[in-house]
Amino acid sequence: MTETEVEKLKLMIVDDELDNLDLLYRTFRRDFQVFKANHALSALDILEKEGEMAVIISDQRMPEMNGTEFLSRTVERFPDTIRILLTGFTDVEDLVDAINSGQVFKYITKPWNPERLKLLVEQATETYRLVKQRTQELRRSLRRESLFNEVTTAIRESLDYGNMLQKIVATIGQTFDATCCLLIPVEGDRLTNDKFSYQDANSSILNFAFEHSLFEKVVETRHYQLNQETFEGNPCNYLVVPLTYQQQLLAVLALYQVGRDALWPDEDIKLITGVADQAALALFQAKLYQRLQEKQEQIRAELEVARQIQNNLLRQSLPEIKDAKLQACCYPAREVGGDFFEVFVHPKGDLWLAVGDVSGKGVPAALFMASAISVLRRELSQETPAEPHTIVQNLNHALCNDLISNNCFITLVLACYTPTTGELVYANAGHIYPLLWSHQATSSQQPNYLKVRGIPLGILPTWQAPSGRALLSSGDTLLLASDGITEATVSNELLKCENIDDNSLTGTHSMLNQEGLWQLLQTEPQPLSLNHLLARIQANNQVQEDDQTILSLEVL
Q1: Residue 346 and residue 381: Cα distance in Å, rounded?
Q2: Element (H, E) at 129
Q3: Collapsing DSSP states into helix, strand and coil, what is residue 174?
Q4: Cα separation, 81 vs 71, whole angstroms
């Protein structure tokens, strides 16, 4: 049989009249592979052996089984076959039923016109080719979509980058019946030492030799390589494809089929390369996510170190002061923050207190916080420290240029308490007012808000404001806090808002403010515990939006 004959379409003719059968055979034998049968049962046997026909021409009136019955039995198994019925005028009713049920494409009456029959068969042939073409395209699309869905599902189920690579190589290997499959990631246009493989469980081949040169060629050319060799006496087909996204080579995938003479068809190669492109996109995203995770883990570790360093900058233990009690708490909103406090006992006996707040949060604020504490301690360590307002001026002079260039500022309250005289001298650079009250005061009295204040540090090159003064006596308490305390959102039930018009409140929560802080202080059990106070505030403030710092001095 010649190559031309192999390419001919199959045509079957079925007629119990041998003269008609021979005539039809001679008419179409040059253009088709013609199969002839003189009754329906014989035709069914031929179909069972030879498979699908492009066209079937059948006579209607035949013994044992008529034409429409015979054709109806071929519909389910060979839906694409084009069926033509030869009939007489007396068979019109059967013909109508056959056409309506989709069993017959066309009919032609006996005696037929040979030219008209040839034209009809040509139409049938073109229809068959068009149906097969569209059916194949649909099947390719469905297969492609099915494979893409399998790969996508496998990728989504992958827990990490390595697991994803293993899923890809196994899914593609199983889908294309590969004897074995190998995937090697690429870094910097070089194959890595990592390998992910799949092998058919039914294959008896062990220690398969991978052709490394094909991998190198794919890395060099960015194009798939197809080759055939012999392995242990068996033909072995190689297909090596790149996994590339945005001109970046991410991995190389190799499929091996042992024992098959034919190479992969073009349709499978196109499908495999298409899946490789989709897998490359997923790999790129997974790799990006993995690097992001690694970077975040590194940042978390570094921030933990920074948190420890910043925590160590603050006083870990407070000094014991005769006839006085000190408390301090500092909780950053993130790992590190911009709030700070300072408690310093000068050798001459003065007690220095400070609470500061760098604008912003996180690492930038923490860096300025460290600088501010360093400069402040240098100033306080002088043999004779200057007055608070002068020290604040010096702080502004030392930090102003950096603060302005980074669009930051610092609020700070600095106080000096002399235990022997009870005098308190303070300077305030844009910070919230310190609270001063006596335990002997009635509940209806307001605290003394120390209101002498200037602008924050880092606003102007020169800071100017006077020092404020107060006199502390036994039973007095001085409280310094950051705005993370007063701006916390708490429930209105906690505030109990006795002196606030209920109509002014909206919703169930409000900002604490200094007035609300004072209300909480009045309901705190004695002796005062800052930890207990902060626990009440934070219990009603589920999301800490700002650093929270608070410091108190009680004169006993």
Answers
A1: 7
A2: helix 114-156
A3: helix
A4: 10
